């Protein structure tokens, strides 16, 4: 039954794109109750991750992280992403999906319209504000750049840095992308330029 659901979902996602497909429509095509899809896959994004043969759902993982403080999100997200991609159990299938998307235009469209759109939209909803989509998109692009230079086309020093070094190096830039420049500490200096001599 699980395999039948995946087969139907794979075809529907490829034909119609992620957004247009519903759990109910997949259930109807597969001849099962929609609750069975939730039982096997948890959510639409979980089903999508299963279609892509990912060990975890990036969108569901991000949703869990969004419940915490936005100030600490870059650090928490980087540590979670690095742990997932450094693991052969979860990282290898995820990078295989990315490599496949490079040569398969339909899969690339699915990743853009499904996985990446989910990530940007969920993050933008949490951020709020007129430029939330832009900030969320830039944030996701920065994390994608890390994945590219650490795992897909390993570039030093990123490829061999420890996770804590990556957090220390990239965390502040990611925080600025999400929330703007951090407030400068108060201190002596010229008017309008706190902390400058």
TrEMBL record:
PANTHER family: HTH-TYPE TRANSCRIPTIONAL REGULATOR RUTR (PTHR30055), TRANSCRIPTIONAL REGULATORY PROTEIN (PTHR30055:SF235). Keywords: DNA-binding. SUPFAM superfamilies: Homeodomain-like (SSF46689), Tetracyclin repressor-like, C-terminal domain (SSF48498). InterPro entries: Homeodomain-like_sf, HTH-type_TetR-like_transc_reg, HTH_TetR, Tet_transcr_reg_TetR-rel_C_sf, TetR_C_16. Residues 1-59 form the HTH tetR-type domain. The lineage of its organism: Bacteria, Bacillati, Actinomycetota, Actinomycetes, Frankiales. The keyword Glycosyltransferase does not apply. This is TetR family transcriptional regulator. The keyword DNA-binding applies. Residues 22-41 bind DNA.
């Amino acid at each position: 039954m699980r395999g039948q659901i995946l087969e139907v979902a794979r075809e529907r996602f490829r034909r119609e794109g992620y957004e247009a497909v519903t759990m109910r429509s997949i259930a109807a095509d597969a001849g099962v109750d929609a609750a069975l899809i939730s039982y096997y896959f948890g959510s639409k994004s979980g089903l999508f991750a299963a279609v892509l043969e990912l060990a975890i759902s990036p969108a569901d993982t991000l949703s869990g992280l969004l419940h915490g403080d936005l100030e600490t999100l870059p650090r928490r997200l980087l540590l979670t992403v690095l742990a997932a991609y450094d693991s052969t159990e979860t990282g290898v299938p995820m990078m295989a999906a990315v490599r496949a998307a490079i040569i398969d235009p339909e899969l690339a469209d699915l990743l853009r319209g499904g996985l990446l759109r989910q990530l940007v939209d969920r993050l933008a909803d949490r951020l709020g504000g007129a430029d939330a989509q832009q900030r969320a998109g830039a944030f996701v692009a920065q994390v994608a750049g890390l994945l590219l230079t650490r795992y897909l086309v390993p570039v030093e020093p990123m490829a061999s840095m420890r996770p804590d070094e990556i957090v220390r190096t990239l965390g502040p830039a990611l925080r600025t992308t999400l929330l703007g420049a951090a407030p400068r500490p108060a201190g002596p200096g010229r008017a309008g330029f706190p902390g400058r001599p």
